[in-house]
Write a structure and sequence with these properties.
transmembrane, mainly alpha, globular, MFS_dom
């Protein structure tokens, strides 16, 4: 893949790349093909985790599990995830991106098969643990590969597209899997997801590649593909703490944790809420699983491209990505807090759609915001660390929701427990959005990281 790796160009508002004589050539057709393949990967990653929510009611009945026990099994996917992601961060920038992603998806798919052949609570727990570890590096890998095909000012739309993989999984494939579960068994849902993963792996083996804005170009590789001497600044690195202690990283961690808690709660308990709280049948509840994601898709595809356009016109990322993004997340939290104020079916559905869409719109800008301050050679590792720490903080989401539901059931409140769960997620979203808006400043922190990197280079040269 050396032929795909050429010196990166200078990116607006981002000192992590140097201007060189040989500017990378943007190849839009190939970039879109790779981006759509990565969209398919996010879809499969989502289904690998969401399948547990789709089978929640029949699986709990079949295996004799309480809501808290099932929530703990669901949360197990996040127990090893942060540890695996942190370990991966140490080697992330040295591994081949294409082959690493291929291996991860293959492992995800293989982990679904044991449930089809011999389902048990213990096996669910073990496979969820391993799945969480294997899934941990995927998000940062996919974004790094995508960003290798797009310059900084054009990354909002690709980031939004990758995020919509979960939404398309809910809207298009979740209803199909629900029908398969109803027609055959809840275990058959796991087999279906495995087959989808195997098909993607075959396609990626032929199509996948890293682009001209690659984040792991070394001087030796640059010299191999560019005429003239390699640029000596390519691959520069800053002290890791100079990145992790910035307000941008801390704000990113806060908002990603808040959004992550809502997402994992929705993954685990939304079909059950539709069934027990709103009175839908099991098939209809599963089919409606993706309804809140409609607004997520709308906001992502509005916010991503409009944000890119504003950045290209010179509006600071602090405004476009941080202040607006934090405000949208907080507004989503307020929508969830308003759930007890409405009744019936249409009102709660509308507020859930609005709240979920507003909160998850942050995925269009959060990763590009962090990537903006990170030296190109460290992009994969830093994104991995951010995702790992936010995953560690959000791991309690499904279990805590299960505890709230069991308490509501014991007190006779029944379906009202779901309202308490979503209100809890809404309050966390408000806090996360506010912290992101207050702390993150990519223009300021990019200069701080650049200064730290220059100081380190000076010390090494002395």
């Amino acid at each position: 893949m050396v032929s795909e790796r050429v010196p990166p160009q200078s990116e607006p508002g981002n000192p992590d790349t140097a201007t060189v004589a040989d500017q990378p050539k943007h190849r839009p057709v190939v970039a879109w093909v790779i981006t759509l393949m990565l969209l398919g990967c996010t879809l499969i990653s989502y289904l690998d985790r969401a399948i547990l929510g789709l089978v929640a009611q029949p699986a709990m009945a079949d295996l004799g599990l309480t809501a808290a026990e099932f929530g703990a099994i669901s949360g197990a996917a996040s127990l090893l995830s942060p540890i695996a992601a942190l370990l991966f961060a140490f080697v992330a920038d040295r591994l081949p991106l294409k082959n690493t992603l291929f291996t991860l998806v293959l492992v995800w798919s293989l982990l679904q098969l044991p449930i089809f052949f011999a389902a048990s609570a213990g096996l669910l727990l073990v496979t969820r643990l391993i799945l969480g570890a294997a899934d941990a590096p995927a998000n940062s890998l996919m974004h790094s590969i995508a960003y290798s095909w797009w310059p900084n000012e054009r990354r909002g739309l690709p980031a939004a597209i990758l995020t919509t993989g979960a939404s398309f999984g809910k809207l298009i494939f979740a209803p199909v899997i629900v029908v398969i579960i109803a027609a055959f068994s809840w275990e058959a849902g796991f087999l279906t997801v495995a087959i989808m993963g195997f098909v993607w792996c075959i396609a990626w083996a032929f199509v996948g590649k890293v682009g001209p804005y690659a984040d792991d170009v070394t001087p030796a590789k640059a010299e191999a593909v560019a005429e003239g001497p390699a640029d000596p600044t390519v691959g520069r690195r800053a002290p890791l703490l100079s990145i992790l202690l910035t307000g941008t990283f801390i704000g990113y961690l806060a908002v990603f944790t808040a959004a992550g808690i809502l997402v994992v709660i929705v993954l685990t308990w939304l079909p059950s809420y539709f069934q027990e709280g709103l009175g839908f049948s099991a098939v209809m509840a599963g089919s409606l699983f993706g309804v809140p994601s409609i607004m997520s898709v709308v906001f992502l595809f509005l916010y991503g491209p409009l944000g890119d356009k504003a950045l290209s016109r010179g509006v600071p990322a602090r405004v476009v990505r941080v202040l607006i993004g934090g405000a949208l997340v907080a507004a989503g939290g307020l929508s969830l807090l308003a759930l007890p104020l409405v009744s019936g079916v249409a009102g709660p559905m509308a507020l859930l759609m609005l709240g979920y869409g507003l909160v998850t719109s942050i995925y269009a800008v959060a990763n590009p915001t962090l990537a903006q301050i990170v030296p190109a050679a460290q992009r994969t590792s830093v994104l991995t660390i951010g995702l790992a720490l936010s995953g560690l903080l959000s791991v309690v989401g499904p279990w805590l929701a299960g505890v709230v539901l069991d308490a509501a059931k014991a007190s006779g409140a029944g379906a009202d427990g779901y309202l308490d769960v979503f209100m809890m997620a809404g309050g966390i979203a408000i806090a996360g959005g506010a912290l992101f808006a207050l702390l993150a400043n990519p223009e300021r922190d990019a200069l701080k990281v650049e200064a730290a990197r220059a100081a380190l280079a000076a010390r090494n040269a002395a």
